[in-house]
Specification:
single chain; alpha/beta; Spore Coat Polysaccharide Biosynthesis Protein SpsA, Chain A; eight-stranded mixed β-sheet; two-stranded antiparallel ribbon; 9 helices; 25% strand
């Protein structure tokens, strides 16, 4: 049971997979580092959490992990104006950072192996998540979601795990036709239907890690199935915007949304 005054401070973002369905981009970089509007997808997800007061992140890494480590090693530089001065003879040069805009984040990067599955990556983080409940999500999905409402729901039911349930968008655009076959409206990938799917954005008790066997365990299979069978998995229904970047077409759609200056996942340029 999560006590009402127990703060949830950490978010785990899975960032170690190969992202094979987006190979046009992930051949060169980890999927969470694919850029939307000049910023990695990972940054967009972290901004969603930060907007709800969570600024401490634990990232299990695998594929091309050095790129994520280098991004955060130079994060302040990436986010700032800078002057490099090489005018003095015999000097290695100086860097002067102007108007730094780095967010007040604490980021722990953990090598969880190249071929480790999602459950295995999570289990390897035991010492980093500690004894308190924590948030967890994937490195390829965004939502206009108030994380604190998910946390409040998790505290209210007292079970071990909460998953955010979302309606899947249609794979194809839909046509609304008039009686004479004129297209009245067209909607690209509308969200609808009665089905609910795993939208990520979990809140988990550390005891969930006991449901995970080892590196080969896929979290979405046996652990979640057992949690459900034990009555320890609850769903927070999210009716608003949610989008997962699985293909190059998905990436282009996110880019188009970002270009409007008002991304539907609530992050500003």
């Amino acid at each position: 049971m999560v006590s009402a005054d127990q703060k949830i401070r950490k978010a785990v973002i899975l960032a170690g997979g190969f992202g094979t369905r987006l190979m046009e981009e992930t051949d060169a970089r980890p999927k969470p580092m694919v850029e939307i509007g000049g910023r990695p997808m990972l940054w967009h997800i972290m901004k969603i959490y930060a907007a709800c007061g969570i600024n401490e992140f634990v990232l299990p890494l695998g594929y091309k992990q050095f790129m994520i480590k280098e991004f955060f090693a130079n994060y302040r530089l990436h986010m700032s104006d800078v002057t490099f001065d090489y005018t003095k003879d015999g000097d290695g040069g100086q860097a002067l950072v102007h108007a730094g805009r780095a967010e007040p984040w604490k980021v722990t990067l953990v090598d969880t192996g190249l071929h480790t599955m999602t459950g295995g990556r999570l289990k390897r983080l035991r010492e980093h998540v500690g004894d308190a409940p924590f948030c967890m999500t994937y490195g390829d999905g965004v939502a206009r979601l108030d994380i604190q409402k998910v946390i409040a729901f998790h505290k209210s039911h007292g079970r071990l795990a909460t998953v955010t349930a979302v309606h899947p968008p249609s794979r194809f655009g839909t046509l609304d036709l008039t009686t004479d076959n004129q297209v009245a409206t067209f909607r690209e990938k509308p969200i609808g239907g009665d089905n609910w799917i795993n939208g990520g954005f979990f809140v988990l008790s550390p005891r969930v890690l006991d449901y995970i066997g080892g590196d080969e365990t896929v979290f979405e299979k046996e652990p979640m199935e057992r949690l459900a069978a034990d009555g320890e998995l609850m769903a927070y229904k999210h009716e608003g915007f949610w989008f997962s970047m699985d293909t190059l077409r998905d990436k282009k759609q996110l880019e188009e949304m970002w270009a409007t200056g008002d991304a539907p996942w609530g992050v500003k340029p």
